[in-house]
Structure formats: C-alpha cells, structure tokens
Design brief:
This protein is 4% helix and 37% strand. With 694 residues, the protein is mostly beta strands. Strands 25, 26, 27, 28, 29, 30, 31, 32, 33, 34, 35, 36 and 37 form a 13-stranded mixed sheet that branches. A six-stranded mixed sheet has the order 5-4-2-1-8-9. A four-stranded antiparallel sheet has the order 11-14-12-13. A hairpin with a 3-residue loop joins strand 1 (38-48) and strand 2 (52-60). The two termini are 32 Å apart.
Length: 694
C-alpha cells in the first residue's frame, strides 16, 4: 500500500469526537440507506431538428435482476399522471449502470456520441413535462404498480417553474434518493434555453452532465480525472466526505485528495478544495469514504459529475509533457466519453506502451482480477493483452503511464474518443500478435491472472510492452500471480512472436496474508486454468513445477492444482509513485514457450465471398468474437438490434480491406437478453441471433 494510505486506513485523525468514531472501517448494508435501486438521474430537451434529442437518464444505484419490473410515465403540461407509458426495459443492470430512454436514435447519437438503450415516442417530452418512475413486482403494469421516483410536479405545467428544462436539462444531485414528491433543491439545472444554438453535447457551453463517475463498492482509493479543467475539485468531489483542507466537509483530520507532482514523483495533498486547479489531461487521487454525509450509514453508490463546458475540439490537442525517462505520471481521461489508449499512445512520444488503471471494486473474480473486499488491483493493457479490456479508459478515470527511452509526453486528441465498448484490433490472416492468460483461484475466494502477449516487438527480456505487477493502493490479504522479465515482476509479459527454439519465463504464485504492514507468504490450495484462444498456432506452452519437477502441457490439458509454499515476507508499503511486487526467492514455476516453424511471408488468403461466421461464444459474457470475410475493399457495417427491431448499437462502420476480419464485442450497458447481430456488406446482409447474459 502506498504510504499515504496509512493516514486513511488507520484513521489517524485529530482528536475530535467525530473522528474517534471512525477508528474502524465499517461496511454497512446499502439497503439501509437507499430508498430505491433505480432513480431518475437526468432529463434533457435538446435543440437538433424537431427539438431532439429528448429523453430520460436512469441510474442503477444497486444491482437490479429484472428491469422489466420498472416503467416510466411522461406527464405532459401539468395534466396529471398518465401512468406507465413505457415498460420496454429488459434484462438486468449492475450498480452504476446508466440507462437512456429517448424519443429517437439518430439525433440522440449525433448529440451524445452513442445510441440510447431504448426508444419510445412517448419520451418526446418538452421542458415543461414531469416524469414518473414506476415499479411493479409482477411486471404486468395492470394497476398494481406504484410511483417510486418523480421529476417535477405531474399536476403543474413546468413553464416558468424552477424545474423547467425547455431546450435544456436537469441532473439529479449525487446524494438524492428516490422520492415520490419533488424537491427542486435536489437537482442541478442547465437553465432554460441553455442548449439553444448547440449541435453536440460535448461542444455545448452548458452541456448535459452525461453519465458521470459512478462511485460504487466500499471505502477506498480511486484514481480520477475530470472532463473539465480548472478549479473543478469542489464541483466533482463536493458531494463526498472531503477533509483536511479549506472549503471541505471539515478542515480537521488529514487530507483525502492528492495530486501528483511529476517532477518530484510525489503526492501533494490539496489544501483548498475550491481554489485548487486541475490541468486538462491530469489525474488525481481521492480516498472515498462510503459514509459521505457522516450519518452512520453507507451511501455508495453515488454518481459524481461536473457542470459547465467540457474539454472538446476547441481545446485542441491536450499535451502533458516533461516526464523524465523512467518516471511515472498520473494522467486522466480529459473527456466525457471513453478514450482508447491505443489511439492515445500512437500520438504520444517516449511513453511505454502500457497504461494502468486502478480497480477498487473487489467484488468477484468474474469482475476483476482479485477477490478481496476493500482491496483492489491495477488493470493494465499493452496493445494486445491485459485486463483493461481493449485499452478503453472510462470518463473521470485516472491512469498511470511511464516515460521510456527519453523525456516523455502524452498527447490526447478528440479523435481518441471511442464510440463503442468493442475495439476492432486486428485481421486474422497474416496477424503477427497474440495473447494468452493463466488464471489462479482458491476456495477462499482468492483470484489472480497473469498474461502473455506475443508481438513482433516482443523481447525475451524487458521491453516496452511489459506491464509491471503493481502493488495495490490499499493492502489486504490476497492471491498474487506474476511472471518476471529479469528486472521486474509482471502482470503482462510481452515476448517475441517469432523466435528460434524455446524461452523460459519465471512464474510465481503467492498466497499473501496482511500482518500489520507486511505481506506474509503462506500455504494455500490453488486451482489453475488457462485460456489459449488467441495463442498463435506455431507456439506451444509447457508449465514446469520447479518444486516437484511436474510438467503440464497447456496446449493439451485444461487445468492443474498445486499448493503454494511459505517463502518469507515483504513490506506491504511503498513510498514511490507506484510499488512493484518483489520476486521472493525462486519462482515456483517456469513457463516454457516453444516456437515452431513460421513462414516469413505468410500468404494472405482472400475470401471469395462475404460471410459472417457463427458468433463465439453464444450465449456470451462478457465478450463475444465476431469473425467475417470481406472479398474486396468495401464498406462494412456491424449493427446490433433488439427483439423489437430497434437499433441498439453500431459496432463498426468502416471501409475494410479484403481478408478475414475479427471484432471483439464487449457491451458496456447492454441488458441481458436476445439480440440480432447484422453484418451489412456491399451486396449482402447477414443476421445472427445472439444472447447476452450478465
């Protein structure tokens, strides 16, 4: 754990009775402090043709197993309730999910840069209309439904009211719970006609605070950023419990917000929440307390957002420079939508190819790479492999980069925004990269994953695309796997795509117990499995147990079990910007990478016809692979429709070269259900039925 964590984790506050209550971290039942799982989080009435897009933003504060039990009503012109007018939601939603119901798709997509989840003509609201959110346990909406949240007064025309949003918007404040009566002070407003003359949300002077930063889980560290630069800390963080500085919740105690000084490679605590300034493209660190209003109850999740104009095309290229060779810098997504790290890297100079984000969720092995409450891990991506899926970095997300070779600089452009959760990352024929990963689990819930990537720029020793195995910001007992490149412990080990003979990669697995400020290695029964779906065909992997001499041929077997051994201890704290796990003693295993013959000039087979191969896997979660053939250079569209025939998302719309292509589809906010994947080519359209399961 980083040294600043000790200040927070052990609650060394000033001797105020209020702070003495918090000498222990207490996890409260979320249900005790939340009155509803789904809330109305925003409404918007924009100004493209026909006064569109119009609609409602919903926010899931807790996991919802069945969205079909929720419906929305649009009460027009103060005429009273119209009951449930839209009940077409389906599937489930995780905590922190945003759902958009709009009157149409094209202008919504133009305005916001992504498609709505649902469309309904009933959502064609004006800025004087109220909104009702309904719940019916039966899902029938035949008279047993009840109102669980409202925006505005259904019996009052909103014209001239404080809650009017004509050609504008309104956004729920982060701490607002669902309510059956409307309180204007619980909302932030864009003011009437704020969107007049605007053509996109990101370019607007007063944009709708789309989505935001869902803070879920428990107390812990978050690496964050802002889509707006300047004195934004009070705006973004004002609804959290902030301490130890002026204009915060209290000036007592020790600060829980820090920026990073790249020159000294050190953390700097904020001294004033409202006057401190953040440069575009920089990140910051905050320790989030789950009790954000200090009433003794946990309040997460909340959805943070910033108001005012976003960084956009008028800002120009955002450049963060002067990162000394080998030093780290905490960068931040400067936009209100996801950015693609691979695109950012392509326009940056002397920056190692790996980006790291911190995941504090610690909820389940399926969701992250370690299963620890109150812990967390770094997720990495090196262009081919890693648990930061496809290198997509969310809005409000901070991330680490490292200079390599000389003084480094990062350049982030508006073009680096990603419009989809999936990334078209390579063609199949003639591809010169690949990846595989090893997974480790214990009966106690421990989980870890180690990656191998195979690239033309890979080296047997250290190289630019190796991802270090970074120690967490908050220490906790855990299972950790790591490989080694001769210098550092690794999360992703990048090795050559082509090589003569066999190379050996040290692999270690440690069961760590936190004792005071030290990690102590111990004995644990571990189950090991692996995924070789993207392993290049000319490569074979063999696992050698250096303790027992046992050999496991990964290409031929499915799993393996072993017991970790005690091998000493090491400090769980570190004082540098980041900490890298040490290699304690000898590595337990060696991964033997054996290279077969590979033609130096592989022949690219050109398909004779357009074709769409079966989507795999199907059903799928969290991602599916879509393969298709293109016989000539032509434009190809890949679209997703729901069972009602509504276009849900356009995954791909691009001019493609002749050959066999592959797209990895990983939905971000798609509900569980059946969908139709449509491939539109120059002379033929293909459709496949797919099932997404959360």
């Amino acid at each position: 754990m980083v040294k600043i964590k000790n200040i927070i984790h052990y609650k060394h506050f000033n001797y105020s009775p209020k702070f003495l209550i918090l000498t222990l971290l207490i996890v409260f039942n979320l249900a005790s402090s939340q009155s509803g799982k789904l809330i109305i989080s925003g409404v918007f009435d924009c100004t493209l043709s026909g006064g569109t897009p119009k609609g409602v933003e919903l926010f899931a504060r807790e996991a919802i197993t069945d969205l079909s039990k929720y419906g929305v009503g649009f009460a027009n012109n103060g005429g009273g309730t119209d009951g449930v007018e839209f009940s077409g939601m389906s599937g489930s939603a995780t905590a922190g999910t945003f759902i958009y119901i709009a009157s149409e798709t094209p202008n919504f997509t133009t305005w916001f840069g992504f498609a709505p989840n649902y469309t309904s003509g009933q959502a064609g609201i004006n800025g004087d209309d109220a909104i009702e959110l309904f719940y019916d346990a039966s899902g029938s909406f035949s008279g047993s439904e009840s109102v669980i949240d409202v925006y505005g007064d259904v019996s009052v025309d909103g014209t001239g009211q404080a809650w009017e949003y004509m050609d504008s918007w309104a956004k729920s404040k982060p701490t607002r719970a669902t309510a059956t009566s409307f309180t204007s002070g619980n909302w932030t407003y864009g003011s009437a006609n704020a969107l007049d003359g605007e053509s996109t949300n990101s370019g607007a002077t007063t944009p709708f605070p789309i989505k935001g930063a869902p803070i879920t889980g428990n107390s812990g560290f978050r690496l964050m950023s802002s889509p707006k630069s300047g004195t934004i800390f009070g705006d973004v963080l004002g609804d959290l419990w902030i301490q130890g500085m002026s204009n915060a919740s209290t000036s007592d105690g020790l600060a829980n917000v820090w920026t990073f000084n790249v020159a000294s490679q050190s953390w700097v605590a904020l001294t004033d929440l409202t006057s401190a300034s953040l440069s575009a493209g920089k990140g910051f660190l905050v320790y989030v307390f789950d009790d954000i209003d200090w009433d003794g109850n946990a309040d997460l999740p909340v959805n943070l957002h910033v108001s005012g104009g976003y960084n956009n095309s008028s800002t120009g290229t955002i450049t963060i420079g002067s990162i000394s060779n080998g030093d780290w810098d905490l960068i931040g997504n400067p936009y209100e939508t996801t950015i693609d790290w691979d695109d950012v890297l392509s326009s940056s100079t002397n920056i190692a190819a790996t980006a790291y984000v911190y995941d504090n969720s610690g909820s389940s092995a399926s969701g992250i790479d370690v299963n620890v409450v109150g812990g967390g891990i770094y997720r990495a991506w090196n262009g081919s492999a890693g648990s930061l899926t496809d290198g997509l970095i969310a809005p409000y997300q901070g991330f680490w980069v490292q200079a390599n070779g000389s003084t480094g600089s990062i350049s982030i452009e508006v073009a680096d925004k990603s419009t989809s959760a999936g990334t078209f990352y390579r063609t199949l024929d003639g591809a010169s990269d690949g990846s595989s990963y090893l997974e480790f689990t214990t009966a106690e819930g421990g989980y870890s994953k180690s990656w191998l990537s195979f690239r033309q720029d890979g080296e047997v020793g250290p190289d630019d695309r190796d991802a270090n195995r970074l120690m967490p910001l908050m220490a906790s007992s855990r299972l950790v796997s790591l490989t080694h490149n001769g210098e550092n412990s690794l999360d992703i080990n990048n090795v050559p795509f082509e090589q003569e003979g066999t190379i050996s990669i040290p692999l270690d697995v440690m069961s760590l117990t936190l004792e005071e400020e030290n990690y102590v290695t111990g004995t644990s029964e571990v189950s090991m499995s692996w995924n070789l779906d993207n392993l290049p065909e000319h490569i074979d992997l063999t696992l050698v147990d250096n303790l027992t001499g046992e050999m496991v041929y990964l290409n031929n077997e499915m799993n393996h079990s072993f017991t970790t051994e005690p091998k000493g201890s090491f400090s769980a704290t570190y004082e540098d910007a980041v900490g890298i796990y040490p290699l304690i003693g000898d590595a337990r295993f060696s991964v033997q990478v054996s290279y077969g013959a590979l033609d130096n000039a592989p022949v690219k087979v050109i398909p004779k016809d357009y074709a769409l191969s079966p989507v795999y896997p199907n059903p799928f979660n969290p991602s599916a692979t879509v393969r298709f053939d293109v016989p000539e250079i032509s434009r190809v569209e890949l679209q997703v429709y729901d069972v009602t025939g509504k276009l849900v998302e356009t995954l791909l719309d691009d001019r493609m070269t002749a050959g066999q292509h592959q797209y990895t589809w990983q939905p971000q906010e798609l509900a569980t259900g059946t969908y139709f994947l449509r491939l539109i080519t120059a002379n033929q359209t293909f459709t496949q039925k797919v099932t997404y399961v959360k």
